Amino acid sequence: MMKTSAMILTALCFAAPLAVQASCESVKADISQKIINNGVPESGFTLDIVPNDQANQAGGQVVGHCENDTQKIVYKRSGNDSDVNVPSDAGTTQDAPAS
């Protein structure tokens, strides 16, 4: 019984980071789809998952967060247009700029 519990605990320790990453990836995919639905071509932007303390240095606009708000999702417009404005409904309400 003790060996079984130890094996289950070990398996959970390895699986937990994968579940957390999947969560960030799913948030990123949802935001990406909203941006595309607002008429921005998929090749016209990037979304990066960065630690909170690196969000300001990422060079874009924070449009989401994940992993219990320890990671930020940063939007960067690509191409000739240097504007980093993202459609207002692309991110979460917590990430929307103050009016």
Automatic annotation (TrEMBL):
Residues 1-22 form the signal peptide. Keywords: Signal. It comes from the Bacteria. Residues 81-99 have a biased composition (Polar residues). InterPro entries: DUF1161. Residues 76-99 are annotated as: Disordered. This is Membrane protein. It comes from Winslowiella iniecta.
